[in-house]
Amino acid sequence: MTTGSVVLIDPQSYISQQIQKLVIENINFFCVESTADAKNLLSRQPCSVGLVILDPSLKDSLEEVESLVVATSKTEWIALVAPAFMEMAHVRSFVANAFYDYHTLPVDLQRLLMTIGHACGIAHLRLSLAKSKKENADPGHFGIHGNSAIMQTFFQRLDKVINADLAVLIGGETGTGKELVAQAIHGHSRRSKGPFVAVNCGAVPQNLIQSELFGHERGAFTGAQQRKIGSIEAANGGVLFLDEIGDLPLNLQANLLRVLQERTITRLGSTQPVPVDFRIIAATHVDLQQAIQNGSFREDLYYRLSVIQLDLPPLRSRDGDVPLLAEVIFKRLSANNPHCRANGFTSQALRVMSTYRWPGNVRELINRIHRAVILCEGKLIGVSDLGLDAYVDIPEAKTLEDARASLDRSILEISLRNNGNNVSRAARQLGVSRVTFYRMMNKHNIAATH
Ligand SMILES: Nc1ncnc2c1ncn2[C@@H]1O[C@H](COP(=O)(O)OP(=O)(O)OP(=O)(O)O)[C@@H](O)[C@H]1O
User: Which UniProt keywords apply (predicted)?
Assistant: First the structure.
């Protein structure tokens, strides 16, 4: 039997007397009278297993027992329940949701000892898993997680950029971590003691963006009742992060260019230039070269901003990073949600997450896991908790040929779904002709209206 310590909450000493008569190899019992005593004990002496008697002798409320069980996640709890208590629906659901197992009173001691042995085994297994996960945990590169080759190359470039004190333009789809990277550059550069001021150029209304960036003097315009320091001035000594730079109106692009050239700023309504010293980091999810072609972005400003260009790859192209990120995010979110019973993901959920295209990238992954942590009722998060039922692949294949066929089929189906069942668009996305696409659909029995 696995070595273990067991805490027993038994106000009337029903079981403790019987248990203490037995000499049980490898198990130490600690008997206490209330949840408060148990909490006290567990803070000094970790126990793999906890037993609590749920009968009229219970001094504490069920809420107090619940908060103890939830707060002691390293202990597997077994309820010893009076038959009359088990008649109550709320007790039944509490026992089913919060406990490793239960026995009905009066207990059969031999059966209980077997359950304790199993619970000790599970507690040890969990502990060793948590330990090895901790040892192998990816600390992330300045809090940015990713083991894929593409992210390792990105990190090498990032390391070089940090202390260069030059303008940086970060490209990448929405949610890929552009702001996180900008914060990492600020936090690890010589400007880390200075401010980090972020402005989302796409989110500030057009009539306010000028005073937001450049500030204004009192009376500069109707409603300007007092002087306002703009974001550029506020970033003095630190970093100015301009997100969605492609949304900055053309007239303000000219003003920003002037600030970058002259390193001074003139508030609206003033003629007095104020010197400013800041590092600019801009981010965009649109192709600025294209915007230059369209005439919506100034080429001279582009060159000023993109002295160093960093491009964050979309999540779908970071090979193997999804399970790693999912684990990191799940740990963080479940730690803040004590009612979450889940310990991880089902293998199907991990498989589906690895093949899903993640149009919203890491932000979408965070949102889906957050939703799952709140909704999940089981011990493992499944595809439906993540809202990914529609992306479940077909049953596991047996041979390499089956595996290829199943992958081809899923790709065709996902591509059709992503393109609103439009075969021409789906074929274009996969880089094959319509004829080839139809042939493949035929081969894999996918109906045209799928
Ligand atoms: N590699 C990563 N490791 C850990 N967390 C990440 C990673 N990438 C992004 N995140 C997290 O994902 C969320 C979205 O990231 P962020 O806001 O930096 O994206 P963004 O590219 O700036 O998005 P947008 O283009 O919509 O402004 C944040 O909570 C961020 O901390």
Answer: ATP-binding, Nucleotide-binding, Transcription, Transcription regulation
